[in-house]
Amino acid sequence: MELQVEQIVTWMEKANEKVQDNKEYLTSLDQAIGDGDHGINMARGFKEVVQKVSGSDYETASDILKDVAMTLMGKVGGAAGPLYGTAFLKLSASVKGKKSIDYGSFVTGLEEALAGMKQRGKSEQGEKTLIDTWAPVIEEMKKADGFDCDLLSATAKAAMEKTKDIKATKGRASYLGDRSIGHLDPGSVSSYYLFTSLAETIRGGK
Amino acid sequence: MKKIINNPEEVVQDMLKGLIAAHPESLKQIPNTTAIVRKDAPVANKVGIVSGGGSGHEPAHAGYIGEGMLDAAVCGEMFTSPTPDQVFEAIKAVDSGSGVFLVIKNYTGDVMNFEMAAELAEAEGIDVEKVVVNDDVAVEDSSFTTGRRGIAGTVFVHKIAGAKADAGGSLQEVKDVAEKVVVNVRSMGMAVTPCTVPAAGKPSFTLDENEMEIGIGIHGEPGIERKKLTSADEIAEELTQKVLEDIEFNSGDEVAVMINGMGATPEMELYILNGRVQEILHERGLNVHKTFVGEYMTSLEMAGCSVTLLKLDKETKQLLDSDSNASAFHS
């Protein structure tokens, strides 16, 4: 299968639902080790994304991804805004002009998104950031030869849960040092919502 | 949560409306943004100075807009960095062709958003330089962290970089003097009560009646250590010693002192703290050139304080002393 424009809209709607439902949970995770605004910021950003893309007419998958990027960049703020904004911008650029996205191009796009986030945040895997969800998910997707919603969802969940054991060395949580161990990274959790929403979208389309 | 607000989602816009209404002669808001600029911006032949960050630190940053200080302040959501498009609008509004200088506090989000804004501005042919303020000694500087946070010492960077730009300094000269301030300024903070972000509705952490949090930042985030509340003199000693240990101070050095309240600390308590801080500095043989006591970089209604020391030289001393009509800058 290929990812269609309508599915990207559904993906964003599902992600928005999860972020809105878990707004307080994300914020409480961030209060433990950060500055306590991740849920508030993500909820504001994804609400705007859905307002922008739902019901709009898009020719190509890359156009809608670009609008998602610009909306997140302009509405989320904090560290999450530039990081998620950069990710969607790179993904959009990677599939530029495509009406729908085949599996191989999508995985390549995600790899470029990940590279963009690493560069923007001057961060690597293992530093208790959203990269710790993205990197393992992309790694597993590279091994598969088509969209596998169970694999996608399970990998994202396991990766997100693993951030509990990591000592933060990037982002606001790094100031806590050892006190950050035992807490989930809020960015990894919101990234899990994004990937599990994608999995649900694909499952629905089968 | 008990606050004088209308809607938790709209506190920043509501605040800016009131801020502009209070200073209609000197400030204006760029339409559809949260960027506040000098009414006469851009000032011809002058480097524009832009700072900002999350809201909730009032009077930072808009209170420092004025002659000899900032040309624009970009106000993000509560404790959240403003977005690149907003910072970009501020840069465009203050550029007179002489370039724009950004004063950024060292937080991951602030650095990323301001850097993206600088990239947007450079693509439009505007010269942009920046400094990242990292005065908080609570956070050990190591290659494993994102580095120290920027806190109250940022106000000294605003003042001195702003004065340099006002005196006709070039973009490079403004950058040089701002970097000199960053190298010579150190701060350390503590809290006795937490604060509540309106949209979150509950305190960011809790402290028992007899506890204090040492080494807090300015976002209601927990500090580096929680311990039993001690006397003002002991707090003054703990904070000042940490600051003094971090940078080489020699007998006879001239310093500027800032005793900053975090939003809910009575001036009485800040002055009590200052009494002991000045004694410690005197015992160390340091000459206090100027002391600032009050609320300069707050954290909503957090009760607590920070101590900042800036080692001065002839140039920075003169720039610190020069006039500014920014509404919140006074000693």
What do you see in this structure?
The complex is a heterodimer of chains A (206) and B (331). Chain A has 206 residues and is mainly α. Helix content of chain A is 68%, strand content 0%. Chain A is globular. Chain B has 331 residues and is of the alpha/beta class. The longest helix of chain B has 17 residues, at 267-283. Chain B is globular. Chain B starts with 10 loop residues before the first helix and ends in a 10-residue tail after the last helix. The mean pLDDT of chain B is 94. The interface between A and B is medium-sized, with 31 and 35 residues. Chain B: This is Dihydroxyacetone kinase subunit DhaK. Chain B: Keywords: Kinase, Transferase. Chain B: Residues 7-329 form the DhaK domain.
Brief characterization of the structure:
The complex is a heterodimer of chains A (206) and B (331). Chain A has 206 residues and is an all-alpha fold.
Instruction: List low-pLDDT spans of chain B.
Output: none
H/E element string of chain A? HHHHHHHHH
**Assembly state (oligomeric):** heterodimer
Helix content of chain B: 25-40%
Strand tally of chain B is: 12
Net shape of chain A = globular
In which range does the helix fraction of chain A lie?
A: 55-70%
Report the structural category of chain A.
mainly alpha
Q: State the separation between the terminal residues of chain A, measured CA to CA.
A: 9 Å
Mean pLDDT of chain A: 94
* Rounded radius of gyration of chain A (Å): 16 Å
Structural class of chain B: alpha/beta
Number of helices of chain B: 8
Q: Using only CA atoms, what is the Rg of chain B?
A: 19 Å
User: SSE string of chain B, helix = H, strand = E?
Assistant: HEEEEHEHEHHEEEHEHEEH
Enzyme class (chain B): transferase
EC number (chain B): 2.7.1.121
InterPro entries (chain B): DhaK_1, DhaK_dom, Dihydroxyacetone_Kinase
Keywords (chain B): Kinase, Transferase
